[in-house]
Amino acid sequence: MINSTADISARCIVKLEEALVKSEPSREGGDNSGYQKYLQILKNNSQAFQTASERVTKILASLKNFTRMDEADFQKVDIHEGIDSTLTLLESEIGEQIEVIKNYSDIPPVPCYPGELNQVFMHLLTNAVHAIPGKGRIIIQTFVENEQVHIRITDSGIGISPEQQRHLFDPGFKTAGSRVKAGLGLFTSYNIIQKHRGQIKVESELNRGSTFTVSLPLGLTKT
Question: What single DSSP character describes residue 144?
Answer without folding.
Answer: E
